[in-house]
Specification:
Helix content is 63%, strand content 12%. The protein is of the alpha+beta class.
Length: 461
Amino acid sequence: MNKARKKLLGGVIVVSLSCWAQQQGALAETLESALVKAYGGNPTLNAQRALLRATDENVPRAKSGYRPRVSATGDVGASTVTSRGTPGGTGSEDFLPRGAGVTLNQNIFDGFRTSNSVRAAESQVFGQREVLRNNEQNTLLDGVTAYMNVLRDTATLNLQRNNVEVLQEQLRQTQDRFNVGEVTRTDVAQAEARLAGARSQESLAQANLKSSLARYRQVIGVEPKQLAPGRSIEKALPKTLPAAIEVSQAEHPAIHAALHGVDAAEIQVKVVEGELYPSLGLQASAAQRYDVQTPGDERTSASIVAQLTIPIYEGGEVYARTRQAKETAGQRRLEVDVTRDQVRAAVVSAWGALEAAKAQITAAQAQVEANEIALNGVREEAKVGQRTTLDVLNAQQELLNSRVSLISAQRDRVVNSYQLLAAVGRLSARTLALKVEEYDSKRHFEQVKDKWFGLQTPDGR
């Protein structure tokens, strides 16, 4: 295997993909720096982080069941009492009844509903963290795909433009030979047709590049300018397919999210069942009243009451919701199996695609080398009349197709390596050693889980 072939198998996008960047000057953007931008600024990913922070608030909401609920009331009014036929004659009294009071309700026992609700809320938070981790994987993979698509489409457009220039020269030479009677009008028409087709392919390549540029802007957040070649990350991958499957089943965030969903669903069964248990609460109140019966009188009252509630029959509604919660828990357990199968299939598919891309690079490189030799030979033979213009055009097209195939295979190898890393559940800023502050999904949770009051979020909103 020659040195050029070994370089290709190293997973590097070769000169054909980076020529555009080199023409623009120094390389200003690498794949890693683009992923840093996507990790920090992608709006879809930031929206998922906000969703996780919102989910964190379910824990203090559930814990509120342990805490007292205090309310204050106040009232004021006016009344007049008119008396007739009394020994004192007719008279009236004006009252200004008013008062204020405070009431405290404290849960003592609620059939373990509060404790189970807290556990369910925590499971939801853990599950949402895994969903966020999966979204981070998807965002990074989208960033890699967008980056490599721009490189591929840029190189393809350069090839198509070069092909147009070559065919223009081929048409000029064919017309010259036609003018001196060496070829027929058919040869000129064939050259003209190929040139028209090449211009069409150039327009298509330009449209594809514009689409890739727009997608890059959407995912990365900036316009691509000068992109360095991308490399595959096969060193970070498991060495064998069975090892990759085993890692994915143990580490993939989608599986962990599904498992936390099972925990939350099973706890929810206990929450609903708790409604059938007795509940015990304490209510304390104090009030101050003025002008209740006579002007100027004042009354103070206070009470503390313990209340025990024993449900006897709820019309079957609680029983139905309990059965419903059990069926939901069963559904979540089945969804874990579905997710495991989906992850396994994704690993197998990504592994096969990566292996195919490697083989395609080797084959495409050999095809390019052979087509270059063939084109040079056909051109020389055409000069002495042993080949027709159509033979030259066909050889030129074969070489172009093989070069485009090589570029696509090189792009596929890089993207598929990241795809496989995502399929096993290890595509992250830490794995890629990105120079970015990793988002701490636990920080907000620790800030709010025990908050008793406060309207501002931890970041001051």
